[in-house]
Amino acid sequence: MNVVVVESPAKAKTINKYLGKDYTVLASYGHIRDLPSKDGSVEPDQDFAMHYQNDAKSTKHIKAIADALKGAENLYLATDPDREGEAIAWHVLQVMQEKKKLKDTHVSRVVFNEITKKAVLDGIANPRELDMNLVNAQQARRALDYLVGFTLSPVLWRKLPGARSAGRVQSVALRLICERELEIEAFVPEEYWTIDADFKTPKGDSITAHLTRLNGEKVEKFTLPNEELAKAAGAAVRKGSFIVASVAKKPAKRNPSPPFTTSTLQQEASRKLGFGAKRTMSVAQKLYEGFDIGGETTGLITYMRTDGVTLAGEAIASCRSVIASEYGDEYVPNSPRQYKTKSKNAQEAHEAIRPTDMSRTPKMMAKYLDAEHLKLYELIWKRTIASQMESAQLERTSIDFTDGAGQELRATGSVVRFPGFLKLYEEGQDDKLDDQDGKRLPAVKEGESMDTLDVREDQHFTEPAPRYTEASLVKKLEELGIGRPSTYASIISVLQDRDYVKLDQKRFIPEDKGQLVTAFLSSFFTRYVEYDFTAQLEEQLDEISDAKIDWKQVLRDFWSDFTVSVEGTSELRVADVLEELNRVLGPHIFPPKEDGRDPRGCPKCDDGRLSLKTGRFGAFIGCSNYPDCRYTRQLGATEEEAEATQDDGPRILGLEPKSGLEISLRKGPYGPYLQLGEAEPKKKPKRVSIPKDIPIEDIDLEIALQLVSLPREIGPHPETGSMITANLGRYGPYVECDKKYGKLSSGMEVLTVGMNRAVELLAASKTRGAGRAAPPLRVVGQHPDDGADINVKDGRYGPYVTHGGINATIPKSSDPMTITLEEAVKLLAERAEKTGKKPKKAAAKTKAKATTKKKAPAKKTAAKKKAATKAES
Fold first, then answer.
1. 101: which of 69, 662, 666, 840 fits an S-S bond (Cβ 3.0–4.6 Å)?
2. Is-contact 449 202, C-beta < 8 A?
3. Of the CATH numbers 3.60.40.10, 3.40.50.880, 3.40.50.140, 2.40.10.500, which one belongs to the domain with range 2-130?
4. Does the annotation count 303 as an active-site position?
5. In terms of Cα–Cα distance, which of 7, 9, 52, 36 is closest to 871?
6. Does 1.10.3470 match the CATH number of domain 590-644?
7. Helices 470-480 and 262-273: crossing angle, nearest 10°?
8. What is 191-255+393-461's CATH topology?
9. Of 76, 303, 425, 800, which residue is the catalytic one?
10. What digits encode the pLDDT tens for the residues 402-432?
11. pTM for the full model?
């Protein structure tokens, strides 16, 4: 019996059909283990020892592989053909060795670039050893990401309240987006004018030309900066009598682009199909794993994570055959086209992304694929076929006109003489043909006189560089050498998941917290968000893959410098950090005023100075004279917008019937809110934030009474009898029952949601959260009373310590990553005393052991079973 391990169940099913009954093909479902999210998973002091932990979700997959290996002759590790796949194969091998499941089993690594019967059988017939250089390159990347995240994030918590986390590559991508936004904000448009004239040829044809010389001087972009000069130039053209000075025709050639790599596929799918990077990779993954074609599941494209642009010899031959049959011999070049990657640090050499069988045209595949998969397949098929087609032959024409007095105009056009690859495929908007392509100019002769039909003076303004789209961001990252094929989609997803950026009309706009994090890292960790530094690290990872450098040495060099930078921030005060951010983000948060007043001067008081401030709900702008001056405005808001949100006094809506207290509508630094009554000594009034989706002008006494009375009881749960309530929380509106939560779609729904909807949301939430527990940030130590771990976790309201079912919030003055055992024990004791709860002692384990001892005959068996369970978990 032979066991084959792949990554996905879809591949396992397909490959099992190809290999037959002598093979058992199982899926690892991706990584079966990883570095746990807690302190100490990577130990720099122990030469970067990495302590992996089996993923709880992988327990049954690990067991299935282990069971299948009983009596197996061969284990083939057939995970994806890249670093990540090599590492997954290595992890499977390590776990099976730890379980002692490979005593008489021969282990081999096999790879195939496509899921077709021929490729799979060839892979099995040509096994190799695991490539530890690739494995170590992936381990080095994982260790670097872990060390940066776990070291830098606590610094952000302490020095930049409201910030969540920082990543090694994501922070650099975020910097690109934020710097582009600052460029746009600082951009000052420049005015310029152009002159165009419409001429009538002797044969009656019309031709449009633009001014190139004025009074004998060349017209540059800003030669005509205002209307006055433009009108004068237009008048000079109007009074002239023009003839044809010259006619020039030049042949031109356009060559096709190479077949797709991961990044170019993501860019083109974004431009042409509107697919995001994540969606593109998900659709491509399914095309790679295969569809049922004629009763057999077949992979339709080659592996979709690649930097390579080469095609296999048989693929090129197949392309040329399809081109000849579909378009004619004239579209087949004399010799095959060969492409080379431009990236000096391209990852492992794979083929470009191409169809596994070129004869499977999109038209043929239409009956097997849904619309989404067909669109991407068609894009890949066309790009691949076009890459081997003949060049497009163009003829570019330029006609110059002169009045003999120094005014010259030019008309340009281009005609496609032979379409070549353009018959099948033209790239997206970033690489389209020039504007004049396809524009045919009428036939004229030198010396012919022209009649002037019209002269136009057109005003223009320069525009800033556009915000990044997913396509242009991926392209820029690739140009800078940052990231690799397998990382582009995840980089973009992380930035959005952390609310550092948002997509607006398919373009990235940084959120305020993204700007703050970037400014902080650029100011205090400059080197680690530099583009060259990040690219150099990527090059070093490539060198590890090529066995040119030791992976531990890369980690040592990085860590020695990085720790010095982190230690250098230990004496920083939050006030110092905010003032530095005031300086760096000045143009963004304190834009210049038209009247020349100090941008940081408070508009509400005479001597106040505006400054960046942070609070529980994030950053805002506030006055230095607080609390005497309560002027605030949100980050990015104009002075006029801020003026409309200032708290100029409460608006009384009416009385709350039970208490008789006034309900007032007020405006604060974080938006409008309702208040019940007035503040009293040592007693705060009840306040309720108004959900963003409820317009402030719609707030009347009826809605206000419902909001201040929250939480609202919906009714007893039909299954448990426990009360279901609806309420507003820090993360939005929700329903709750027995400490289980369901997210509502809007603030107004809190007031209207019924029983059926609430039960449905709670059931969905339970399904999503099943079996998932928040991993600890770190283990502080063992509690002196029972020896059980005290963990630090990150909760809805910030970091806390937990032990025996008791949770205690860590004060803002303490660092969750450095809190001592003594401090943690004290916090837990205070919390237990306040709540009257007693910690659950670790007696359950002791009791279980005692029970085992009573069953003397089963003692040995029970101990083995316990050990096996622990190893598998």
1. 69
2. yes
3. 3.40.50.140
4. yes
5. 52
6. no
7. 160
8. Topoisomerase I; domain 3 (2.70.20)
9. 303
10. 999 999 999 999 888 999 999 999 876 543 4
11. 0.69
